[in-house]
Amino acid sequence: MDSRGTERDTGQRRADGSLDAILQCVALPVWVVDHAGVVVLVNPAAVAALGYDDPSELRGRHGHDTVHYKRPDGSPFPREECPLLAPIRTGAPVHRDEDWLVRRDGTMFPVSVTATAADLPSGRGVVMTFVDMTAQREAEQGLRERDAILAQVAQPVWVVDHEGRFHYANPAALAALGYDDPADLVGKPGHETVHYKYPDGTPFHEGECAVARARNTGQTHQEREDWLVRKDGSILRIAYSTAPFELPGGLGAVTAFTDIEDELEAQRVARERDVARARAEELRAARRRMIEAADAAREQLTRDLHDGAQQQFVSALLTFQLAERKTGTDPEAAVRLHREAMDQTRAGLAQLRDLAAGIHPGILTDRGLGPAVEALASRLPVPVTVDDGLRRRLPAPVEASLYFFVSEALTNAVKHASARHLRVRIATDGDRLDVAVADDGVGGAAPTARGTGLAGLADRIAALDGELVISSPPGRGTTLHAAIPVDSAAERRSVHLTR
To answer: 337-347, pLDDT tens digit by residue?
Structure first.
């Protein structure tokens, strides 16, 4: 061998040594084959991945025939069909995301491999690098199996990745949220897609979201009542549980939720039913008290007629009879008796007018609720301010019920409140009528168990399907606020109750 050949061999050995030293430091499995496909260099990572103990066990052997000689089904794979040797012929790189290699013991493992042409002293060879995909394939298989299981689960379930983006949503979750295809959700930010606003429409920021906090901290979290936003923007009421979930890219979270719309609706219906039952009981009790109060009022009216107007008219009749007998014998006495009888008759009529006014004042029929209340207020011994905001007449039964509500409230205040000033306010608010009677007296008023006083006032308002709110802090006066729906149903009820 001449000196030039010796120098070439020496340079080749130096180059191979330098390259080998570099490959020793590379963590990625790498080997190099020459123009004939024979392994000339292999790093420790590749030796270990292929199940060998020393690079010398691979050097000098044909790469394909050693680690790529059979297909995954066990059938032979000729070197002529190997795409990884193609760069020797074409010079073009080859990359395969899904390929396989054969270990020393004959077992096979999936790889992602890249083959790149390399100019070697002996001609064009190939540098091959690969990544063992076993762990990733197992993880992907596990996820596929979990996805297959979750797809059969009736409860809505989704998975988000470490960035909070949808990684998976089962068919039940898609249907509940109004989506048709997983692609409509996968890859989108979870909070900004299904939890971005409060039920009232105001923005709901991710920093306030318990689901996002649980994912970020890797904690499990549950809520018995929350909400989600469907694709069409409507609100879905839910209960949910979220927990950490390991994904290939990092720690994500799995969330399972339950649609509680039907449950909430059932609870609402149950509450309304209970309220209706309680209200029916209250109305029955109120009607019973009103009947008792009406009976007492009739008894009082009978006594008033008997002791008042009736006595005056009986006395007047007797006086007229006596005057008639005196006409022939004592004309002057007859005239005097006749005048007394007329006075007794006028007194009886006055008492009848007072009783009639207490039963149903004429001004209420002629001019309505506001003027009748003003006339009532003018006769009280305590100053009363009347704020009449009513601009229309109400049905007569409603006006009568409210008039006597105001009358009894003012009478109670005069008798018991030690008030210096009273105020009555009548106003309408849409289809609702508000009537308030307030005083500046001693306060501390409360309904009694019987159908008198404040309890009786509450009964009157309940009979109109209204609500009475009593505010009476000690030392700060009393306010009775009645709210009555002004509709045909309430009017029909008031007609029935006033008959």
So the answer is: 888 878 878 87
Collapsing DSSP to helix, strand or coil, 480 comes out as strand
Quick one: the chain helix, strand, coil %, rounded to 5?
A: 50, 25, 25
Identity of the amino acid at 113: V
* Tens-place pLDDT, residues 276-308: 787 777 767 766 666 566 555 566 656 656 566
Instruction: Give the CA angle between residues 437, 439, 440 to the nearest 5°.
Output: 155
Measured between alpha carbons, how far apart are the two ends of the chain, in Å? 136
Comparing CA positions, the residue from 179, 371, 398, 408 lying closest to residue 293 is 408
What are 177-203's pLDDT values in tens digits?
Answer: 999 998 999 999 999 999 999 999 999
- The token duo for 406 is 């105001």
The answer to whether 30 and 129 have CB atoms below 8 angstroms apart is: yes
Structure tokens at 77: 């794979």
DSSP 3-50: HHHHHHHHHHHHHHHHHHHHHHT--S-EEEE-TTSBEEEE-HHHHHHT
**Contact of 245 with 252, CB cutoff 8 Å:** yes
10 Å Cβ neighbour count for 196? 16
Could you tell me the two tokens for 418?
A: 């030690």
> Shortest CA distance to 62 belongs to which of 6, 110, 7, 125?
125
Query: Residue 417: pLDDT above 60?
Result: yes
Indicate the Cα dihedral angle 422, 426, 427, 431, nearest 10°.
140
In this structure, are residues 113 and 27 in contact, taking their beta carbons and an 8 Å threshold?
A: no
Cα–Cα dist 445/26, whole Å: 91
For residues 101 and 70, the answer to whether their CB atoms sit within 8 Å is no
Radius of gyration of the chain (CA): 50
Contact 204, 196 (CB under 8 A): yes
pTM over 0.85: no
Alpha carbon 192 to chain centroid, angstroms? 18
Q: Which two tokens stand for residue 394?
A: 């109400």
DSSP helix/strand/coil, 223 = strand
> Residue 6: which residues within 8 A CB-CB, separation 6 or more?
none
